[in-house]
Amino acid sequence: MAFSLRIRRYLVIFLITGWAISLAYFLLHSKKPRQPPEAPVRLYRDNRLLMGTFWEVVSPRKESGPIVFTEVKRIENLLSKYLPDSEVSLLNRAGKLKATPDTFYVLKRAKEFWQESSGAFDITIAPLVELWGFTGQKYNLPSEDSIKAALKLVGCDKIILHEKDNVVEFKFPGMKIDLGAIGKGFAVDCAVKILKENGIDSCLINAGGQIYALGDKSGSCWKVAIQDPRRQEISGTLELKDQSVSTSGDYEQFFFKDGKRYCHIINPKSGYPVNSGITSVTIVADSALEADALSTAVFVLGKEKGEELLKKFPRVTARIL
Ligand code: AMP
Ligand code: MG
Questions:
Q1: How many whole angstroms separate alpha carbon 197 and alpha carbon 283?
Q2: Which residues of the chain have pLDDT under 70?
Q3: 129 CB less than 6 Å from ligand 1?
Q4: What was the pLDDT predicted at 285?
Q5: Ligand 1 centre distance from Cα of residue 98 (Å)
């Protein structure tokens, strides 16, 4: 009796152990329901030469490229100083113009940045840009007298903006404007607006270093490499979402004369190319127009005064090389 009881106990233990082993085996080896692999989001790339710059558009929506390029072409037709029928060319020839709301808006914002930067950012710099040969890339060292004469035509206080009818007027004949430091930024903002109106919420626009990251790239920020222009190497990366980056530097256009380097950004106070000890300024801002204007302004002002200016824009960050 005692024997059969022991056998029965062993039998129960044996059965329970066997059952436990089978369960463990089943749990380890049973096939888990397979998650379907996440399909990588396809990104479309498109590029075009506009406003004298190579534009690149990256987006999961194929139509983003054509939407951006059509809008940028529209803005180029208004703001380019190289197109004879643009509003800027008409104003530069006639000294007075009834502008479209877009052109008027850019001029108004340009005048605000002139005020904020104590005159370092100045779109009336055009006569000096021409004098130094940066417009047609026929560089030369102008005489002191010609610089002094051109400086008389410089200053945004010499532009009158009639808000009620969008009329723009120059105070003196011979004045000219150059939107090279703000126009591309404005064009990027306009393109982003049109993309949003078309229901597109993910797109990266790169207009020769003038960048806007719309939304995100399949759930993560857009990663943008920042190049050290003098060394031709990557000096860092930025993660962006609904932000713009703009870089101004002395490497874009320059010439050497008697061992001295002269760059395309002119100091409106002296009439000479900027020599502030900075090689480049990178600005991250919410809008491309702001990033564009501020990168040029800080480049002119130099590190100390530039950082002082940026205190007025608490959402803006900067990298000064
Ligand atoms: P960015 O590359 O945006 O810094 O713009 C440089 C361009 O702006 C130059 O090629 C000129 O056409 C124009 N520019 C030069 N000096 C100034 C200045 N002090 N303020 C505004 N625009 C300028
Ligand atoms: Mg600029």
A1: 26
A2: 1-39, 229-232
A3: yes
A4: 98
A5: 24
The model carries a pTM of 0.88
- Other beta carbons less than 10 A from residue 119's beta carbon: 18
Query: What is the spatial distance between Cα 302 and Cα 202, in angstroms, rounded to a whole number?
Result: 35
CATH number for the domain that contains residue 155:
3.10.520.10
Domain of residue 268: give its range: 21-26+42-320
In a domain? residue 280? yes
Please tell me the distance between residue 167's alpha carbon and the centre of ligand 2 in angstroms: 25
- Nearest ligand, measured from the Cα of 53: 1
As a whole number of angstroms, the longest Cα–Cα distance in the chain is 127
Q: pLDDT value at position 28? A: 47
Question: 113: which residues sit within 8 A by CB, 6+ positions away?
Answer: 121, 182, 293, 294, 297
Q: Is 303 a member of any domain? A: yes
User: What does the pLDDT look like over 299-313, one tens digit per residue?
Assistant: 999 999 999 999 999
| CA 120–ligand 1 middle distance (angstroms) | 10
- Is residue 119 within 6 Å of ligand 1 at its C-beta? no
The residue to which tokens 């055009």 are assigned: 126
Residue 15 lies in a domain: no
User: Tokens 């914002």 identify what position?
Assistant: 109
Q: What domain count does the chain have?
A: 1
Centroid of ligand 1 to alpha carbon of 224 (angstroms):
23
| The ligand 1 atom nearest the CA atom of 134 | 10
Distance 265 CA to ligand 1 centre (A): 5
Q: Please indicate whether residue 106, judged by its CB atom, sits closer than 6 Å to ligand 1.
A: no
Ligand nearest to the CA of 111: 1
Residue 33 lies in a domain: no
| Cβ neighbours of 316 (radius 10 Å) | 19
Rounded Cα distance, 117 and 293, in Å: 10
Burial class (CB in 10 A: 0-12, 13-18, 19+), 299: buried
